């Protein structure tokens, strides 16, 4: 738009006589362009504002009020935030979420990359292998949780039956605070890795084979080629996958309902599950709003990091 | 011309709407919680359809919404969304929360004869009667009982017809019942579930130790009383000191399977599971009252019928009719025989069908007999929150994360903060 105005201005000096009309026409054209653009964006914007931005603002507002039993609202300012800072379950849930993210994200991405490189080669049974890796992703989380619940059942679950073969005693996997989080992490990695593999596989197939050929002619080893050529070219995909994995680590709570209900003693509670409990089991919508604001802040922080910083540091083809 | 067409359309509409539903039918939606094994939904569906046959002017839709907590969540959320059910079975202890939310009406104004309330066991009415009004009517009610595997008792050299009568008995017998295969324990002595309804089990132990857990107005809990702490210590010691129960938390839902698989020789569970256990057990088993410390005792448990305020007067009247039909002695007896829940009135136990059943299967009346030792289940304002605090404390102690004293002190402090608003 600025370019065009500049263009119009330069014409103005060249042809002094016709210049006012030309500039007006160019100006109105630019204006119409802007209006057109906004009109095209409008339907999506309306939906976003109605179902995303407005609810966010309403949530922030609601976190500053409490609702009395008779339905009236009272302004309490930051009281709910102070109560939250003093709430040990909140801190526990937040800490759990951190460990959950740390446990699931790097491993599932690394696994996804290895699987993608593996099934990207020409070999027999490739289609079957790809399908096998992708299967966990297709299953609904509730079904997955039920399957894994059987694995983890003490004494006669699959895991303890295997341990029994080696003469080891049964272990109460989900009933012990020291193992429950690890168990959930393993399950989520199993579920997520196949999903991320698909993105890597798509990216790998976009890479030009010339690069690899050139590298092999130059005598580069396979590992060197991967480290210096393939992996850097996959960076945009890696970023996308990382962001998705981080968001998922806050979003996935279905399995908690089936497997642990956040227990024992909150050892497996995640932030979103705690929000659900506060909002719907305890019927405390204003405290739930306060917790939601924290979750929103965390997630928007991650989004800002992606758009503001990481995007600029990555080489897009 | 126009007027005539409008009239015709109106007439057609009227005919259509009359065709869609029988004249003046009342629709009721009922939420129903399922907390035990066995075909509970099928049994309820069958009873509902028989009620509809008897009362063609009332249509009842039963919605199964998960366990008690899930059903309460669904009912509250539906209410806030403006579409509550007209009646629901919910925990008898949710009464304070439902009153606080202004959700329910007492039965007093809806029944023609209040003598009806006297037909039920007083122990089951206790939770629902507040300030001289009856806010709920019992239906899916229970007490905790001890199930024991007679074959395992025989194998361990114990009298298979004698269940432990005291806490010490239970520990001593459990020690004999534990079976090991190298480092692996193939059979535990006793299991008490610590997920889902941990507060309920703790209350049972506290009662037996001679300690009440809450006050009448429902705004105080007694978690740090020395006898409550001692109750939790006993529970923790079963796994940590005596090694007769598995370490870590024991899941409410899978415990029945543990018992049926012979992984534990005894379990504490609701009597509501009785028929499911009876149908699946491949061994002889017995049912006994819970063992005593200072006294016998169990909290009552389970769900009552509630009628929602937002229902129309016709719907409320229809709902009462349905509740009266469901709780009539023959139906209460049938329900008890099919599930194991305690029938809610003494008259139900005098029906010929129940008398015959009890003769062939005496386990069926243990939970009823225990009623004379029973106390009302823990019921306070903000029940959901308090249950979570107590449940967390129990799990913290069971898993060894905290000492019973510390864990209960934390739960007491959290409960006090929440209940302060109701004093």
TrEMBL record, chain B:
Keywords assigned by UniProt, alphabetized: Periplasm, Signal
Keyword flag Signal: yes
Cellular compartments annotated: Periplasm
UniProt superkingdom: Bacteria
Signal peptide (residue range): 1-25
Cellular component GO terms, alphabetical: periplasmic space
Short name of any one Pfam family annotated for the protein: SBP_bac_8
UniProt family annotation: Belongs to the bacterial solute-binding protein 1 family.
Name the UniProt record assigns to this protein: ABC transporter substrate-binding protein
Organism listed in the record: Bradyrhizobium nanningense
